[in-house]
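Problem 12. The chain below contains 339 residues. Write out its predicted structure in token notation.
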Amino acid sequence: MPRTLSRREFLKLGTVGTLGIAGTAALRQNPAAIAPPSDASMPGMDDGMHGMEGSNITTGEVDTSRFDPMKYLTDFDYGKTSTLPNGRTLREWDVFAGDKEIEVAPGIFFPAWTYNGQVPGPTFRCTEGDRLRFNFLNASAHPHTIHFHGIHPPAMDGITPNIPPGGRFTYEFDAQPFGLHLYHCHTMPLKRHIHKGLYGTFIIDPPQGRQPAKEMVMMMNGFDTNFDGENEIYAVNTVAFHYAKHPIQVKVGELIRVYLVNITEFDPINSLHLHAGMYKLFRTGTRLDYYEYTDNVIMGQGERHVLEFTLEYPGLHMFHAHQSELAELGWMGMFEAKS
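Solution.
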């Protein structure tokens, strides 16, 4: 019986582009997912950047009709809106937890627990002071909750009650403070419920808004596909290397705002390094003045920051985790800046 290889064994074999994902059984199912060691350039890449800085990447494509990482970048869900008698805005969402197999690399599937059928879950967005209502249905085979970061009554914190399969609960609270937050299941064992995919981004805009920009959400996550307690795949927005093979299109001189969240389980830190540029870092997004000007940020699980930058030169600008192993196992992408 073939044994399952760990990510480090795959790295030693030089097949980092395949991610080692789920062992030899998965490789037999989809041998095309393995890119043979090569110094060939990626299509559209400059000749001096052979093979994504010397590493392989996955071949083939995921089925984006199931989940499209490019669409997810800018898919902000403002909910159903109405006006309360006191004039305040009420935003309402229907959220369900469900069990679903997701594709995290070409031909490689992960048995996920999802909010609204996707990982990450929807990006909920509102303005500070709005009244928020989340109607939660647990359509999964396991008990779940939704825990929102931010300020709210403890009864709405998503610790208790634990919602059983088929159960319902309504979370209702005022949106505060403005900033970049996240939500996730808080059922024990916590690491299992987060690692399986029950998380998403939660943005509360300041009442006065922010400067107009091209905005996008990047959620750094990982997948332990053989359940050995360490990840075989890393990504931003779930699909390994997706933005390397499909660069994000931006304009030279255009203000770009990235809502960056780290939800990676099993690793103490993650990071984002931007090539050929620098960004203003707004820690947690709860202040309108930036914390520092940098090209690399180190983040623990649950940390989130707003990044703002412009790219001054046309061409492909790489971004990736500055933990090399994470980058080689899928957490790598490109901005393509055009004049």
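Discussion. The two ends are 55 Å apart (CA to CA). Students who got a different answer should revisit the alignment rule from Section 12.3.
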